[in-house]
Amino acid sequence: MGIGSTFLGLLEGGPRHGYDLKRAYDERFGADRPLSYGQVYATLARLLKNGLVEVDGVEPGAGPERKRYAITDAGVTDVEQWLSEPEKPEPYLQSVLYSKVVLALLTGRSATELLDAQSSEHLRLMRELTARKRGGDIADQLICDHALFHLEADLRWLELTAARLDALAGEVAA
Fold first, then answer.
1. Is residue 24 exposed (0-12), middle (13-18) or buried (19+ Cβ within 10 Å)?
2. Residue 91 in domain
3. What's the order of all strands across the beta sheet hosting 53-59?
4. Residues in domain Transcription regulator PadR N-terminal (predicted)?
5. Position 62 in a domain
6. Please, which residues bridge with residue 59 across strands?
7. Does the first or last residue of the chain, that is N or C, have fewer Cβ atoms within 10 Å of its Cβ?
8. pTM of structure
């Protein structure tokens, strides 16, 4: 998710300070990975430079002056374009898991143990997300479902790779 585009969407509701944008972002999108203030103000500086936001007001504070940012017409157009374009699906053709399996085979280590350990880690995380989903609001449920579906696909791949491990070992050895 583009932080800048997300900020623009949040600013469509009205002008906000950087602190308010960070709080809104973290509440809705960054529960597991909150933004740093450095990211917030670097993103706002870039949006300002590109003419997508403007400073709507400046208020004195105990520290530096507090700027309030508002979206410009160009910013609204940018959000509309961003929301209307489908995201490119990620084919995952460069997988760290695949690399680890091949390297385990190449170096004489147990690829089976690696696959078993990875499956256990996936299952652990799936249990954690399922518990979070049960106690969460609709936003939490949807984001957990998204992650769970990806983890399920990874698990299917791990099982398929385990079933084909002898064939892969033969190719790697050749």
1. middle
2. no
3. 16-17, 66-71, 53-59
4. 8-78
5. yes
6. 66
7. C
8. 0.72
